[in-house]
Amino acid sequence: MTVENLRDAIVEEGYCVIESVIPPNEVSRVKDSVLHSAATHKVSDPRSKLDKVSGFINVDQSFAPYLTEPRLLGLCKTLLGEHVRISYTTCMVTHPGNERGQWHADWPFNQQCAGHIPAPYGDALVHLTTIWMLTPFTSETGTLIVPGSHREPNNPTGDNGTPLREPHPGEIAVTGDPGSVLVMDSRMWHAITPNRSDRPRVIMPIRYAPWWLNLESLRPGSDVRDRLTESGLSENTVPPLPPDVFEALPEDVKPLFRHWIDRVDSTAAPSLTPALDE
Ligand SMILES: O=C(O)CCC(=O)C(=O)O
Description:
This protein is α+β, with helices and mostly antiparallel strands. The protein has a single domain, classed as Sandwich (Jelly Rolls), CATH 2.60.120.620. The protein has helices spanning 3-13, 27-41, 70-80, 223-229, 243-248; strands at 15-18, 43-45, 50-54, 85-94, 128-133, 144-145, 172-173, 181-185, 190-191, 201-209. It has a seven-stranded antiparallel beta sheet with strand order 1-8-5-10-4-3-2. A three-stranded antiparallel beta sheet has the order 7-6-9, with no helix packed on it. The longest helix is centred in the N-terminal third of the chain and has 15 residues, at 27-41. The protein starts with a helix and ends in a 30-residue tail after the last helix. The relative contact order is 0.21. Mean pLDDT is 94; it is low at 266-274. The structure holds 2-oxoglutaric acid. 2-oxoglutaric acid is lined by residues 101, 106, 131, 143, 190, 192-193, 203, 205.
């Protein structure tokens, strides 16, 4: 599939799958590293059998070289522009018995997030969600999506009348081999699939944003985050990236993350561009 084919699939159906972003002979090494890091750094949700690590690049860099895989980055740049950047890196491990999640669109369309574009939102692609498959995605384990729902002006988190946890007549489970990446418009209605297998299901949701999308609501301590969470809604958190982790990233990956560098002392931060007048 060419980047143009992939772009057309995203625009028309809201999603596509790119195979072997992590080559087959490298995927088990990445999965082992991810499982180890997840076990060390996980936050477990007591209401479910889900282990989650936000800011996963901070603790595991085994997947970093693949973030710029030409088909994937080419697609992101075609849709979001040259100065695309990564908004989130997350690891999620769901254990056997984990139940179906609620239908939602991702940030910034998830109406339960403090930082959200209020529904009805316009028909524009502004954020991409990628789900990295580290265990097989079958009809039983693939992410549940409703193809075409990305063109809707609302989603089930916005009380649009769609039951949050019931099967949807238009739903499909996305399938693919480990190492493949599901790319979708973040407006896509999707849900965590129940884990009916006898093994952990391992994924990395990684999201790509254009330079102009304000990510400050995700940054701990930002004024935007403070302002928005005063509403009483909570917000996802992306922890700052330690400078030494940033420095060790592959050169072509660094531009995707430089906005997340932890600048503890902002007066000491290197000036990346000449100052503007205002
Ligand atoms: O478990 C999945 O496949 C979907 C994960 C998900 O819904 C999300 O990361 O927003």
